[in-house]
Input
Amino acid sequence: MTGRAINYLAEKKEQNIHNIKPMLQFHEAVQKISMRHYKDITYRDNKTRLNLLTEFRDLVHKYFDNSSLNMMTGKHVEKPEAREAREAINLQLKKVYQIIRLADINPSALYTPHLASGDQGSNMDLILNIFNLGRNEIPPDAAIDYIERAIDVYKSNRAPSFIRTINPFFWISFLLTKSK
Output
């Protein structure tokens, strides 16, 4: 490679770095608005969250319909469909958990172990521990109920989120809080 070609590639690389910075700033701003409380999001964000929750619920159904708990070992016996669903659930788990919490829903239950173990009861998050429910004798429907409650919250928020989206005062407020 000639010196001229190397200089040209170096200049292009520098230009691309400068082009990426505004895109990263925009992405960060989108991330901030997308992780707001459900009463502070746009129609598009509401729809995105609703779709993600619905897809997640369907994956959870698919996983538990295609797996069973081996009571001797305490492990799930998974069909290939369940393994695929498990992988997809793990990829979405953190985001779905945040979305559920931003809907003012606390997906936890009081877990009380067997008396013979001598352990104290404690709160167990049903979404983050979705693959441990059977081991703790908690039916998967308990976690699915919380997911469906979140879906209902976002469905009920469709009209208000649309009004926020077309309301110029919402956007002024957004810009003012963003600059702080």
Summary: The chain has two domains: 1-34, 43-170. The radius of gyration is 23 Å.
